[in-house]
Amino acid sequence: MTANNSFVHENLISKRASKRSNARTSSAATEDAPAGFEPHPKPLALHRGMPNAGFFPIDSIDVNLVEYPFQKSLSIPITNASVESFFPDEKSVSRTNTVTIKKVDDPEYVDISTALQYGSVAGIPQLLQFTQEFINRVHKPAFEDWDTVITSGAGDGLIKAANLLLDAGDVILVEEFTFTPFLENIEDVGGIPVPIKLNLDKDSGKELGLDVEYLSDLLANWETEKPGLPFPKALYVIPSGQNPIGTTQSIETRKKVYKLAEKYDFAIIEDDVYGYLTLRPFQKPASIFKLNDFLEVDDFIANHITPSYLTIDKSGRVIRIETFSKLFAPGLRLGFIVAHKRVTTVIKNYASDVTRSASGTSQLIVQNVIAKKFGGVDGWLQWILKLRITYSHRKDLLLNQIFESAAYKKGFLEVIDPTAGMFVSVFIKLAKGVDAQAKLKLLNYKFKNFGVGVIPGITRTVDKKFSEDRSNFYRLTFAPAEDDNEITEAGQRFVEAVEDFFEKGLEY
Ligand SMILES: Cc1ncc(COP(=O)(O)O)c(C=O)c1O
């Protein structure tokens, strides 16, 4: 990092960080040693209240894995799913589907005696190293002094980011439709979320999602637009597979937003929990499920995953939130943060007061499965490619159901085909002058009556009034369905409910 960048970063911590964060220090005791003091090279521990691993009831764990999602339940024919086609070069990787986790193991792996012991606040070193290799491979930051810290999932990462930056009365910019639990985190620290308009108009000719022009104008005219409010300290974005809209910001948009962050000196919290789950553009679902479309990992990284804000961050102002929830399993409660070392240090100080380390069992499972079965970063990306193709197939099933429907053909609906993530937003086309929110509320009852659960857009707003005109959509997801039939059936119920609603003149 250059001196100038250090200075900017110094600002992020000393000027942009909350008073709470700046006041927090490491809890390690420091004592004044007498002159000539030499610590013993191998002290024995009578001071730490940690049970020896011999007290643990577990000696080893066998984790039995599948080769691909739904391996045991996929009902339609599949093709080219052989192990070799997925791991052509990984000779060292276990060919069996069992990963054995030992009480004591080689230093390359996390063993039971380490993982089930009290652990480092930063995370277990082998997993931390994996996260760093992973970020280096996929989203190498444009500044040098970055680090990772393990969290208990993205939700925990977000709480820590809010705590890091915001004092009571501080302003944070948030996309107008968002992951609403983060609004609670902002409220908890007394922050004030200010919505940023999203462009949802397909006819506008502009990229869908965050409206950069709106953001730029708002910042340029802050004092007149938001009289009495302090200048924003941060922007919170979900740049890929946006929840709830499903849009993904192009790298050009990210560069423009970053430029504004540099100009107006605010931090960017990048919540990229869906960034690796890229999706193919819609294609009619085939009757044979092609499990492998032979996308190479290099091609996946270069041409499918949109680079993180970190890759354009020269001054260490980006705080990237990652999770294993969407790629491995949400119940692990495991994720990580990537940010400047000074930011991760402050986050670790906070973590040592609240969560301490993330679950050792979760770290144990994830690190061993990735190291022993997938063979590291590229093998992990190959697993993600299998998720990608399975999610793409599911998304196509749902979209196909919509595109083939009378409701769609009659123009009652419009859809955004997402290029990442788990969400499809479906817009209901209501004529001008109709009381849209009253009608959408009624329609939601119709969905319940037809037996399909959806999320009304209005429930995902920062400010209902601000977003009323753009809230004429429902968020649908193809993630939780048991199988393909459930997706097509749910899609069918959805479109039939819409058609019925319009046929009855927008009445229940
Ligand atoms: C945008 C976004 N951020 C964060 C999370 C929380 O993820 P985690 O399970 O890792 O806490 C979710 C989960 O739905 C999400 O959609």
- Anisotropy-based shape: globular
Q: Judging by the overall fold, what is the CATH architecture of the largest domain? A: 3-Layer(aba) Sandwich
The largest sheet has its strands arranged as 4-13-12-10-9-5-6
CATH superfamily of the largest domain: Type I PLP-dependent aspartate aminotransferase-like (Major domain)
Sum this structure up briefly.
This protein is α/β, with parallel strands linked by helices. The chain has helices at 3-16, 19-23, 83-86, 112-115, 125-138, 154-165, 181-188, 212-220, 222-225, 251-264, 297-303, 341-353, 360-374, 377-403, 406-409, 436-450, 464-467, 484-503, and strands at 60-64, 78-79, 98-102, 146-151, 171-175, 192-196, 198-199, 209-210, 234-237, 267-271, 289-290, 318-323, 335-340, 413-416, 423-428, 455-456, 473-477. Helix content is 38%, strand content 14%.
Tags for this model:
alpha/beta, disordered N terminus, 508 residues, single chain, Aspartate Aminotransferase, domain 1, binds pyridoxal-5'-phosphate
